[in-house]
C-alpha cells in the first residue's frame, strides 16, 4: 500500500486483508501437533555448540538474516524478531514513502508477540503430540509470527492516521503521558466485536473440511473459529492498541 495515500478506510481494508493471512497461517500450523522439541533450547544447543536457543529461534534468526540482506526490513511495515546484529541489505534501496513520525517509527514489540505466541496461543489451536517434523513446524511458526507481527505493528499506521484526522483529541493526553486516556480514545468496542465475528466467520469458510459425502464432516474445522475470535479479542487487538498508545506517546517528540 502506498503510505502517502493512507486514510483510515484504506488502513481498515488492509487490516481486513491481513486477517486472511493470519487465518491461513494458523490453518497451516495446525497441520502439525505441538512438537515440543521445536521450542526446547537443549534440542538444538546439544548439536550446534555455537548457538544458544530453540530450533524455532534458530530458524527465525537465520531466515531474518537472509531477508535483511534482501532488504525486507527497509520496509517500515516489517519488523524483525531479532534485530540485533542483522546484516545490512545488499540490494538497491527502495524509496519507501515517509508516513510515520520518525521518533515513533522504531517501536517494536515482537518480544511480546513471541512470548504470547509460544506461551499462550499455540496451545489454543494446536493438538498435542509429536510427529518429528520439527523443522517444518518451525517454518510454519515463522509464517504465523510474521503475519501476527505485521498486523499488530500496523497499529502505528492506524495511530498516525487517527492523529492526523483529529490531533486535538490526542494532544492533551500525549502531553501528560496519559496512557489510560489514550487507550480509551482508541477503543471502539462495537468495531472490535465486529472484527471478532468476521474472523470467526472467515475461519469457518477457510477451514471447513470438504468431502464428497453429503453430510460428511459437517461442522468440522481445521482451526476452531471460536479460537480465532478469541485470539483476536485476547491478543491481537490488545497488542495492536498497545502499539498505538506507544506510538502516540512519541508522536510529538
What is the overall number of helices? 11
Structural class based on helices, strands and sheet pairing? mainly alpha
Give the termini separation.
26 Å
Percent of residues in β-strands:
under 5%
Biggest β-sheet, characterized? Answer: none
The helix content is 55-70%
Please give the number of β-strands: 0
Tell me the overall shape.
Answer: globular
Mean pLDDT: 92
Compute the CA-based radius of gyration.
20 Å
The string of secondary-structure elements, in order, is HHHHHHHHHHH
* Low-pLDDT stretches: none
- In quaternary terms, these chains amount to single chain
Give structural notes.
The structure is a single chain. Helix content is 60%, strand content 0%. The chain starts with 7 loop residues before the first helix and ends with a helix. It is mainly alpha-helical and 253 residues long. Helix 1 crosses helix 10, helix 3 packs across helix 6 and helix 8 packs antiparallel against helix 9. It is globular and about 55 Å long. The model has no long low-confidence stretch (mean pLDDT 92).
How would you summarize what this structure contains?
The chain is mainly α and 253 residues long.
Question: SSE layout and pairings?
Answer:
Elements: H1 8-29, H2 41-45, H3 55-69, H4 102-105, H5 110-125, H6 134-153, H7 155-165, H8 167-175, H9 179-186, H10 189-206, H11 225-249
Helix pairs in contact: 1-6, 1-10, 3-6, 5-11, 6-11, 7-8, 7-11, 8-9, 9-11, 10-11
Amino acid at each position: 500500500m502506498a503510505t502517502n495515500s493512507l486514510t483510515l478506510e484504506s488502513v481498515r481494508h488492509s487490516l481486513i486483508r491481513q486477517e486472511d493471512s493470519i487465518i491461513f497461517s494458523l490453518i497451516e500450523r495446525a497441520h502439525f501437533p505441538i512438537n515440543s522439541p521445536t521450542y526446547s533450547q537443549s534440542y538444538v544447543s546439544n548439536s550446534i555448540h555455537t548457538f544458544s536457543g530453540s530450533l524455532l529461534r534458530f530458524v527465525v534468526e537465520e531466515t531474518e538474516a537472509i531477508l535483511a540482506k534482501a532488504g525486507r526490513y527497509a520496509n517500515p511495515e516489517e519488523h524483525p524478531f531479532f534485530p540485533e546484529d542483522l546484516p545490512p541489505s545488499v540490494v538497491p534501496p527502495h524509496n519507501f514513502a515517509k508516513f510515520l513520525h520518525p521518533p515513533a517509527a522504531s517501536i517494536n514489540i515482537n518480544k511480546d508477540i513471541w512470548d504470547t505466541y509460544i506461551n499462550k496461543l499455540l496451545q489454543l489451536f494446536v493438538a498435542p503430540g509429536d510427529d518429528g517434523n520439527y523443522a517444518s513446524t518451525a517454518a510454519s511458526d515463522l509464517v504465523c509470527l510474521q503475519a501476527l507481527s505485521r498486523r499488530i505493528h500496523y497499529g502505528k499506521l492506524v495511530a498516525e492516521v487517527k492523529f492526523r484526522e483529529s490531533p486535538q483529541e490526542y494532544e492533551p493526553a500525549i502531553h501528560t503521558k496519559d496512557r489510560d486516556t489514550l487507550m480509551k480514545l482508541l477503543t471502539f468496542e462495537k468495531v472490535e466485536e465486529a472484527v471478532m465475528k468476521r474472523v470467526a466467520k472467515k475461519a469457518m469458510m477457510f477451514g471447513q473440511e470438504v468431502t464428497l459425502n453429503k453430510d460428511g464432516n459437517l461442522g468440522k474445522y481445521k482451526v476452531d473459529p471460536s479460537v480465532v475470535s478469541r485470539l483476536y479479542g485476547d491478543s491481537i487487538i490488545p497488542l495492536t492498541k498497545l502499539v498505538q498508545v506507544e506510538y502516540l506517546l512519541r508522536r510529538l517528540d
